[in-house]
Specification:
336 residues, alpha/beta, six-stranded mixed beta sheet, 6 strands, 51% helix
């Protein structure tokens, strides 16, 4: 997918360029900056000396030397002073300048840390929001794979309110799969117990719900007439979006979209199918219908599904914000 949040050591990522959260001297420091210089070796420092520093909000590029990347883009973020001294604008400028340099050097992939969120004190949830918004704006106009690399969970944080709201929604709606199984087995004749148990486990949908929500014959025939690919293309036409607008909004790679378009029987992964439903801003009912055509369903025995349902019910179709939340709850991300 074009934008991914990953837990990784940025110095070990095999991408075209990594971004260094540098200081204005470009001569190394602590945190990510120090780690990158140590991994790259002394030649990186030698090249940086010739750059004569960098202004806050800007970036400069060097070779990667001993790193597994071609380039290091050194971006100088602002020090947090409460938010009233242009910190956000300078941080946005960091990301924009770094992305521009990556594009100018024909980079197809680039990895960012959360710039300014360490020793410079920029609140992590605000730093993440700036990163997501700026990078996603760039990706709507450009083809590139961008990673936001966080070293561990303590280095990553969404807003406390969003986290608690989702957590409460999960508490209200999530039903442990084992609880589902036990409850359903009490209502099924003993001889059918084993078969039912396996069905519940494999399909992630309560067995009784399957029995009571079977479509009519006419509905079943109608649904068989349109494949996932056909429904997707129809919905794109109805939305007024272009194909490119849709797959970029869905955080889907162009090559994958081409496969789906050219093969009407293409079966996407569940995250990919949901990503298109989010991009098209489908209702919960329409989302379930699109998922069914891909062979999937939403279930309250899956935290991933419950989080998706939360965002749809709250009318929030920003796929990057959804992915922030999914990452925070240790779930798969939407996209290819």
């Amino acid at each position: 997918m074009p934008l991914q949040i990953v837990r990784n050591d940025i110095t070990k990522m095999k991408v075209d360029a990594i971004v260094n959260a540098a200081n204005s001297s470009l001569l190394g420091g602590g945190g990510v900056d120090g780690a990158i210089h140590r991994a790259a070796g002394p030649k990186l420092l030698e090249e940086c000396k010739g750059l004569h520093g960098c202004e806050i909000g800007s970036a400069k590029i060097t070779k990667g030397y001993n790193l597994p990347c071609k380039y290091v883009i050194h971006a100088v973020g602002p020090i947090w002073q409460g938010g009233s001294f242009g910190e956000r604008e300078k941080l946005v400028s960091c990301y924009k300048t770094a992305l521009k340099l990556a594009k100018e050097h024909d980079c197809e992939s680039v990895a960012f840390p959360l710039i300014s969120s360490g020793a410079y004190g920029y609140p992590k949830d605000k730093a993440l929001k700036v990163a997501i918004e700026t990078i996603s704006d760039f990706l709507f106009e450009n083809d590139m794979t961008v990673y936001i690399a966080v070293f561990d969970r303590s280095a990553y944080r969404i807003s406390e309110k969003l986290f608690s709201d989702i957590e409460e929604y999960i508490d209200d709606n999530y039903v442990d799969l084992h609880t589902h199984i036990k409850a359903e087995l009490r209502r099924i004749p003993p001889l059918a117990e084993l078969e039912a148990s396996e069905a519940i486990r494999s399909r992630e949908v309560p067995y009784s719900a399957k029995l009571t929500t079977m479509p009519s014959l006419d509905d079943a025939v109608r649904r068989l007439d349109e494949s996932f690919s056909e429904m997707l293309l129809r919905k794109i036409d109805e939305s007024g979006m272009t194909d490119a607008q849709c797959y970029k909004k869905a955080n889907i790679d162009r090559k994958l979209f081409s496969k789906i378009r050219s093969d009407k029987l293409y079966k996407p992964s569940k995250p990919t199918a949901i990503a298109f439903a989010i991009a098209l801003e489908l209702s919960l009912t329409e989302t379930k219908d699109m998922l069914m055509k891909a062979g999937f369903a939403l279930s309250h025995s899956s935290k991933f599904d419950v989080i998706i349902e939360y965002f749809i019910e709250h009318g929030n179709y920003n796929i990057f914000e959804i992915n922030e939340a999914l990452f925070a709850f240790d779930q798969s991300l939407l996209g290819a």
